[in-house]
Structure formats: structure tokens, C-alpha cells
Amino acid sequence: MSGPGPVAAPVLSTRGLAKRFGSLVVAQDIDFALPPGVRYALIGPNGAGKTTLINLMTGMLRPDDGQIFLGADEITSLTPAERVKRGLVRTFQINTLFPHLTALEAVTLAVCERRGHAARWWRRLAAHRDAVDEAYGILASLMLGEHCYRLTRELAYGQQRLLEIALALATRPRVLLLDEPAAGVPRAESAALFTAIAGLSQDITVLFIEHDMSIVFRFASRVIVMVGGRVLVEGTPEDIGADPRVREVYLGKRRHA
């Protein structure tokens, strides 16, 4: 009888990560490891340090202590752009960045940027047919194919959030970080948004911040709970839902809010 298979090496990990603003500690002793292909939710009450952690991992903030690794490589001192090139990507709101571009033009620009052709992207799209084909494939995978010729500013808000993910996918990420991807999205659209996220390639590890516990328990395969700048617990959605500490500091508070 064979034993359990080898444990996959983490694609993203931190060791002793800490950040302070004067006497205010916003992250302390954060250790975790994300295996490849897993859908992780990062939850916790307001002020728990969730967005701070995303900013530390992406290089928007520099830690006071600790290390960040992408695969086996330490990336603690790399710039945000260098981390993107290595495959660590987060989404940003893009409806104010590309309002006059169609969805297809915006994603084609992102593909050309990855290929080093961004300076010539504005030539007729036919000059970049392979980039256009890749961009359309990304949009179609996120249920935006039929909207590819619409201007970014004309898309419904949920579709704009999907377009943000499409732009991130154009960089070919190994790890995709989503800071409240459904924020402001009508509930009817948020299910479609997370269905698209759930359908992403298993080559991509996803970590998303989300406050809606029904979404977390439906779409996450693992959950990390933060409280007071620390990781309180990590586990399956079932484990997290049954943990009395989580109910006390987070789930219970929301239920009785």
C-alpha cells in the first residue's frame, strides 16, 4: 500500500512578516504557504490587516521584518513591477484607466505589454493578430467575449471587475490576488463573477479577500482568518465555520451586527 503523495511546494509564502506605522502594528509574525492551484479566501474583521498583507506581498508596502517567497525565490526586495513579471499579480480598478478603449483593446494592450510590444500596440489591431487572439480568448473565458467591442466605461460594473481580472490574466500570473473583487457588484452579478474566478486555470493560485461568507464557503477551498494583524487560523471552509474562535471574533460578530 503506497503512502500519501508528496506535498506540493508552496507557490507563495511568507516568514515572520511584520509591518508597523509608528506604534501601530498592522502585521505581525505572519507565516503562511499557498500551494499551487488552490483557491484561498482571506477573511477577518475590519482592520484585521488583510489589505495590508496584500500590499506587502505585492510590494506596495515594504515589511519591517520578515521575508516573502514566490516559489523558492525570495522577492522581499523586488519592486511591484518585478513581482508582476515573475507572476505575482493583483487586480486594480481599471474603468478610470481605460475608459475610451474597448475591452478587447485594453486586454490586447496588456498582452502587448507582457510581450514587450506596448509601444506599438496602437497600430491597427490586425498588426497584432496573435495578441488579439490571445486577448479574445481571455475575455471569452471570463464570459466577456460577446462584449469585447464595448467601451470599458459602458460595461456593467460586474463586467468591469471581470475585465480587471482579464487584464491580470494577460500577464500570465502564477498567483492572482483579488482584493474584494465583488465590492460594489450587485448580488445577481457577483455569483457570475465568482463562477468565472472558480473556473480559472488550476495553474493559477488565487487568494481573494471577501466579506460575504456565503461566497467564501461556496468558492474557497481553503480559508485564512486574520485578526489584529496576525493569522488566527487556516483551514477548510468547514473547519473555519466550526471553529469557535472564528465565530467569536468574526462570524459571530457579523451574524449579530
What does the secondary structure layout of this molecule look like, with pairings?
Elements: E1 12-21, E2 24-34, E3 39-43, H1 50-58, E4 65-70, E5 73-74, H2 80-86, E6 88-90, H3 103-115, H4 129-141, H5 157-169, E7 175-179, H6 187-198, E8 205-209, H7 213-219, E9 222-227, E10 230-235, H8 237-242, H9 244-255
Helix pairs in contact: 3-4, 3-5, 5-6
**Unreliable parts:** none
Averaging pLDDT over every residue, what do you get? Answer: 88
Number of helical regions:
9
- Amount of helix: 25-40%
Which sequence of strands runs across the widest sheet? Answer: 6-7-8-3-9-10
Structural class from helices and strands? alpha/beta
**Major β-sheet annotation:** 6 strands, mixed
Q: What does the radius of gyration come to?
A: 19 Å
Spatial shape: globular
Task: Report the portion of residues in β strands.
Answer: 15-25%
Give the N-terminus to C-terminus distance in angstroms: 51 Å
In total, the number of strands is 10
Note down, in words, how this protein is organized.
The chain has helices at residues 50-58, 80-86, 103-115, 129-141, 157-169, 187-198, 213-219, 237-242, 244-255; strands spanning 12-21, 24-34, 39-43, 65-70, 73-74, 88-90, 175-179, 205-209, 222-227, 230-235. Strands 6-7-8-3-9-10 form a six-stranded mixed sheet, with helices on both faces. Strand 9 (222-227) and strand 10 form a beta hairpin. By secondary structure, the protein is α/β, with parallel strands linked by helices. Helix 3 (103-115) packs parallel to helix 5. The protein contains nine helices and ten strands.
